[in-house]
Amino acid sequence: MLKDKLVENIINLTGLENTLILRLKIEAKLSEILNYLNRDELDEIILPSVSTVIADCLSNDTKLDNVQSLSEGDMSISFSTVSPYFGRLEAFKVVRGIKHDEEG
After folding, report:
1. Any residues with CB less than 8 A from the CB of 85 and at least 6 apart, and which?
2. Does the structure show a pLDDT above 70 at 86?
3. Looking at residues 32-48, what average pLDDT do you find?
4. Are 92 and 46 a contacting pair, CB within 8 Å?
5. Where are the beta strands (DSSP E) in the chain?
6. CA-based nearest residue to 57, from 23, 18, 85
């Protein structure tokens, strides 16, 4: 199963211990990434890239939100337009609503 291979890749890349908490974090990051890419499931093509992105996020404790700054007085929130995935996953995005014609 690809999710097991993903966990194995991340453990090898980070040296973290295979725990339930780590598996939950990986599952959460994977869900965020699949949502970002407009994909329903992990496939073999994106596995290496997703593995390295999640490993980097876990190693650096990177948050995958796009909030750039917060101010409390009169409440101000700025959002980053930069991909939280460091531009490494852009090529794997799926455009919804476009059907590819297999015959032509």
Report:
1. 33, 36, 53, 64
2. no
3. 92
4. yes
5. 67-71, 76-79
6. 85
